[in-house]
Amino acid sequence: MKKIVISALSAGIIATNFSGCGNAPSPQSTKSSVYGFSFIEGKIVGKIGNKVVVEVGDKEIIEGNSYIDRLANSIMKNSLFVIGMDTSIDGESGKITDIRGKQLTIETNNQKLLNDQIVKIYIPKKTIAIVDFSLIGIDNKTLDKFAMEDMTTKLVQSGQYLVVERSKLNAILEEHKLADSGLLDERSSSQLGQLVSADIILTGTLSKRGANWVANLRLVDVKTGIILAAINENISGQEFRWEQAKDTANITENFEDNQLSSGWLLNVINKGGAESSGIIDPTIGANGTAQSYKIKYQFNNKRSNSFFMNSKLRDISSYHGISFYAKSDKSTTIRASIFDKNYNDPHDNKWIANLNLGTQWTQYEVPFDNFIIGHGYIQDNPGGDGKLDLDNIHRIMIEVIAKENQNNTSGQIWIDEITLY
After folding, report:
1. Cα–Cα distance measured from residue 108 to residue 120, given in angstroms and rounded to the nearest whole number
2. Domain count, the chain
3. Does residue 17 fall inside a structural domain?
4. Are residues 235 and 99 in the same domain?
């Protein structure tokens, strides 16, 4: 069984043939990235006995502009350091005794440090407990879970935190009746943090304000009971609604249980006069499986096309591409297509990668970076913002198109083991 990984060069050549333009733009993904680091630079702005005052820089932690990215960025930047924590300054041990904005007071025995000196400060790893947000103005108690899970993932990915497991946290909240009043105050937060051995507690509210939302969060230093930061973020109703509806799970469609996973059509959609059908074929499968999905098509004109589609809204920014097995009864060209929704543009982008099928099962791996703006979209104004928003994918399709198969007015293809990688 063959395996084909679509390279940037081959994807560009194939897609150019189908889009009719040799300079089709490649996707500029807005995939969110989280950066981890152990040190941050600072400048000594004062000395008091065995203490130095260091003004630290503002280092970017998350690249991305979803409201989860914005909130997580604020949380991390406001809790890189906690009073009483051990650290080091230019390799010498020290203890943080005061924090005022970007200025840290560090107690150290290093007598060689000078005013205006640039130094490297070690960032200790902290344990954080995230309390479920209180919801104001809505009865749906599941909405905050999406935000909590995404935010927890980003905090863990940064490498700055150990996150208290939620079941342990909820059990202690219930046992000690600390959650009855909704948003925890500083005293309750400090008590909870001590019970779960956390350094920081994150608590807050999500409130509905007309069509929009407001997130009000507090970071509490467990040891001192002091609020490290109060974070306020406005969230558009459209952005919040999209975030909550997204599926972040992988696609694992293998057709073995005679049912399609959520979002997939039971049949194919025909356009331009095509006649086709789609069924689960119980007689043939790829990669050792017993079943696959068969599309039987009949094209009546060059504008005909048939496609198998998943229309579930997804965040696939943690994956690199799509993989599937496919074969045909004759040499056939198919197209993998993905559509993204744009936060600030009412139009969509369609991104495509075209593949040549043979009569033997072959595994195709198509990196998202190798999708280009699809046929039917103006190249210099492709209908959206011209960027592949992997966190807002609302259609994934596999298509057979008459124009690209002019010598094959009818035929069959089989698809199996669709997944993201």
Report:
1. 14
2. 2
3. yes
4. yes
| 276-311 pLDDT tens trace | 999 999 999 999 899 999 999 999 888 898 999 998
Question: Is there a single domain that holds both residue 343 and residue 317?
Answer: yes
- Chain segment 385-404, per-residue pLDDT in tens: 567 888 888 899 999 999 88
Please tell me the pTM assigned to this model.
0.55
Which residues are registered as beta bridge partners of 47? 52
Extract the tokens encoding 168.
């342990």
Residue with tokens 């809505």: 138
Between CA 408 and CA 421 the distance in angstroms is: 32
Give the pair of three-digit tokens for residue 239.
């952005």
Do 388 and 302 sit in the same domain of this protein? yes
Count of CA atoms in the C-beta half-sphere (13 A) of 143: 19
> Which of the listed residues 229, 245, 261 is the one where a domain comes to its end?
245
User: Residue 293: which domain range?
Assistant: 2-30+250-420
**Calpha distance 273→400 (Å, rounded):** 13
> How many residues does the structure list for the chain?
421
End-to-end CA distance of the chain: 19
- Domain of 107, CATH number, reads 3.40.50.10610
The CA angle 245-259-322, to the nearest 5 degrees, is 60
**Residue 35 belongs to a domain:** no
pLDDT at 41 over 90: yes
Distance CA 363, CA 418 (A): 10
State how far the Cα of 157 lies from the Cα of 159, in Å rounded to an integer.
5
DSSP letters spanning 138-178? ---TTHHHHHHHHHHHHHHHTTSEEEPPHHHHHHHHHHTT-
Q: CA–CA separation, 94 vs 106, rounded Å?
A: 6
- The DSSP secondary structure of 368-405, one letter per residue, reads GGG-EEPTTS-TTS-SS-SS--GGGEEEEEEEEEGGG-
Q: 242 pLDDT band (50/70/90 cuts)?
A: low
CA 227 – CA 219 distance, rounded (Å): 6
Q: For residues 207 and 340, state if they share a domain.
A: no
In three-state form (DSSP H/G/I as H, E/B as E, the rest C), the secondary structure along 230-280 is: EEEEEECHHHHHHHHHCECCCCEECCCCCCCCCCECCCCEEECCCEEEEEE
